[in-house]
Amino acid sequence: MGRATFIHVLALSSLLILFPTQAFAQLKQNYYENICPDVETIVRNATAAKVRQTSVTIPGTLRLFFHDCFTQGCDASVLIASSGSNTAEKDHLDNLSLAGDGFDTVIKAKAAVDAVPGCRNKVSCADILTMATRDVVMMAGGPSYAVELGRLDGLSSTAASVGGKLPKPNMNLDQLTAMFAANGLTQADMIALSRLCAHTLGFSHCNQFTNRIYNFSKQNPMDPTLNPTYAAQLQQQCPKNVDPRIAVNMDPNTPRTFDNMYFKNLQQGKGLFTSDQVLFTDSRSNQTVRSMASSPQAFSDAFVAAMTKLGRIGVKNSQNGNIRRDCSVFN
């Protein structure tokens, strides 16, 4: 083997190590056109019905999708219930805050799909979660976009697989960028997807950020990057020794709307988590935040592109996946 050929093979091998899930090549738009033609309408209607019942459905579904994809890939493994012999992903500490309404959305949409005789057991739970995520974004005022489908459901779900895979509220830019890069996503993708973790929709429990308003450092009890007025509001909502179950809106201005207000908030020092505000305070990401704050279209385009890439992570095929009859239980 010549040197050039060896280097080429080595490069390809490195890519396979970094991105071992090239099975996303099986994904395509309108995948179910000849299998279950009305599946997207069925899922959208079921999701809309759930949203009408409770607005928590929107951030709950968004976070569920992100947590699923970042753990073992977009394979609905986060939906599996724990058993006597296995503690599943959903019961890992990092997933305990996931709202039950997100899980319920997938369960109800799956039931609606399987109620159609020709569709029964032909649509994966992973694809249903993907479609429902797109739908809640649209229902909250965000962009409507075509989704790639054709995923199969994973055959494994363990709490041990979750550790270190999900962003933490106190992460810095280097940590966040590295975590997303490990999943084939750029820093710009990471910034566009920051709101997917319910940082523009939904809420956070006080114990996730009280260190920023009470115990930041000996010199500064309050994080100096926080807007003082906003910090005072947070102190009112989350007094010292508050019940950790108390929660506040992640976006203090438009908490139920999917818009680019998140980035405008960062410019004003109103990022709830350190991992939010650092996107603006760090010069390496500041310009991307400014661009998305000034242009809803720039954010929308970046978000759709990043969502497409996110949905390709860890896609399972017939060798390592199947279509579950019950999304919470392996076949």
UniProtKB/TrEMBL annotation:
Read off the InterPro entries from this record: Haem_peroxidase, Haem_peroxidase_sf, Peroxidase_pln, Secretory_peroxidase
Q: Which PROSITE patterns match?
A: PEROXIDASE_4 (PS50873)
Record-listed substrate binding positions: P167
Q: Where does Ca(2+) 2 bind?
A: T200, D251, T254, D259
Q: Where in the cell is it found?
A: Secreted
For this protein, the Enzyme Commission number is 1.11.1.7
Question: Which first-to-last residue range defines the signal peptide?
Answer: 1-25
What cystine linkages occur within this chain? C36-C119, C69-C74, C125-C327, C206-C238
- Reading the lineage from the top rank, the first entry is Eukaryota
Active site at H67
**Catalyzed chemical reaction(s):** 2 a phenolic donor + H2O2 = 2 a phenolic radical donor + 2 H2O
**Which cofactors must be present for this protein to function?**
Ca(2+); heme b
Q: Name one GO biological process term.
A: hydrogen peroxide catabolic process
- Any idea where the Plant heme peroxidase family profile domain is? 26-331
Instruction: Note the site residues: Transition state stabilizer.
Output: R63
Gene3D superfamilies documented for this protein: 1.10.520.10, Peroxidase, domain 2
The record's free-text note on cofactor binding: Binds 2 calcium ions per subunit. Binds 1 heme b (iron(II)-protoporphyrin IX) group per subunit.
What broad class of enzyme is this? Answer: oxidoreductase
Main localisation = secreted
UniProt binding sites for Ca(2+) 1: D68, G73, D75, S77, E89
Q: What's a single GO MF annotation on this record?
A: lactoperoxidase activity
Kindly state which keywords UniProt assigns to this record, in alphabetical order.
Answer: Calcium, Disulfide bond, Heme, Hydrogen peroxide, Iron, Metal-binding, Oxidoreductase, Peroxidase, Secreted, Signal
The entry's heme b-binding residues are H199
Functionally, this protein is described as follows:
Removal of H(2)O(2), oxidation of toxic reductants, biosynthesis and degradation of lignin, suberization, auxin catabolism, response to environmental stresses such as wounding, pathogen attack and oxidative stress. These functions might be dependent on each isozyme/isoform in each plant tissue.
Q: Which family does it belong to?
A: Belongs to the peroxidase family. Classical plant (class III) peroxidase subfamily.
Q: What is this protein called?
A: Peroxidase
The organism named in the record is Deinandra increscens subsp. villosa
